Amino acid sequence: MFAEKEILANIINLGQEITQVKDVDLLLEKILTESRKFVNADAGSIYVKSNNKLLFNYAQNSTLQKKLPPGKKLIYSTFSIPVNNKSIAGYVANTGETINIPDVYNLGASVPYLFDKKYDELSKYKTRSILAFPLKTPQDDILGVLQLINAMNSSGSIIPFSEEDEPFIMHFANSAAISLERAQMTRAIILRMLRMAEMRDPKETGAHVNRVGAFSAAIYEAWAVRKNIPGKEIDKTKDVLRMAAMLHDVGKVAISDIILKKPARLDVDEFEIMKQHTFLGAKLFSDSRSEFDTAAFHIALEHHEHWDGNGYPGRVSFDCTAGQQPFVSAVTDSKAGEEIHQFARIVAVADVYDALSSRRCYKDAWDESEVLAAIKNGSGKQFDPEMVAAFFDVFDIFRNIRQQYPDDD
Fold first, then answer.
1. Tally of domains within the chain
2. Rama region for 88: left / alpha / beta (φ>0; ψ in -120 to 50; rest)
3. Contact partners, residue 271, CB within 8 Å, separation at least 6
């Protein structure tokens, strides 16, 4: 009885931890990490339900991770599967049942689902035991499927998942589903806010802002690991940065359609007006009430500042008289170096990378080698050299992020 109480206490603590994570992507990663720890699973994957499909969002694999150089993350392909009884995850999403499989290569003829071994063949990894369960809200809405792979004993051998763990992991899954639903609502609110800008500026798509947010979080994490920053602090900062980075260009909603929708490069006078989107966006967050407000303020205001001082808009003074809308009272010389907020220095790299890599109405996407050369050449000029170094540390996962958030052509 004591052991069960201790296990339940751990599950409750895990549930409280994940409620602190606000961003959807980081939450999914946290859910997968913590659930694997609880049952000592070597690997796992997480799917998010969208209409009648399951989108493969995250994968972790300790065995394959150990084969990578220190600091590198596992790269995986993004794909979707139908919600039906033909696959293990599809069956769980379709029925809402938990499945505990001792050996996926010996399923027997009585079950309707199959195990697709092609992923094992591609990765040279051997899947044996699987515990798959739905992420289900109190209203019985299934948001996704969590699939844990290869339970390990103390000697490192693969064993079946314990049936005794199922009630506890389901308790965690219920907490995870509630947190996921809340995070999805937060993401939806941010994206609705950004759709106003998207209606005005065709370049400000949901895919673009999601990519910039994900790129920024990856750059920060690589930089923080280099600086030996504790893991909990990294997770907390990534959570704020990931969401705030999505709002980097929200101020464009206040810029004229004539400028935003011009199918060519802007002239000098038009560009001066376009520059105003920085402090117009920052105005939305100038009366800061949270870490998120502060982060969004600095990112919106400073993501076009340059490390060498040749960026814009410069030093902006806001008059925030109580009871009145804040307004810009002065703009002076531009900022440089570490005067620019760290988050803005990160987003500067992420935003330029995505802009150069994407097709626009006035240009084609640049070749990858040209994009990387531009980022490298901008080190110490447009960009913080440390953030450029962090960018190249994790660039291999950027292709995966672009695959996860593709443009709708």
1. 2
2. alpha
3. none
| Reported confidence tier of residue 320, pLDDT bands at 50, 70, 90 | low
Structural domain of 230: 201-404
| 207 plus 167 within the same structural domain | no
Same-domain status, 218 and 165: no
> What pLDDT does residue 409 have?
54
8 A C-beta contact, residue 18 and residue 27: yes
Q: Domain ends where: 131, 155, 183?
A: 183
Are 349 and 300 within one domain?
yes
Residue 188 lies in a domain: no
Taking residues 55-82, what's their average pLDDT? 86
User: What is the reported pTM?
Assistant: 0.77
Would residue 57 count as lying in a domain?
yes
What per-residue confidence (pLDDT) applies to 265? 82
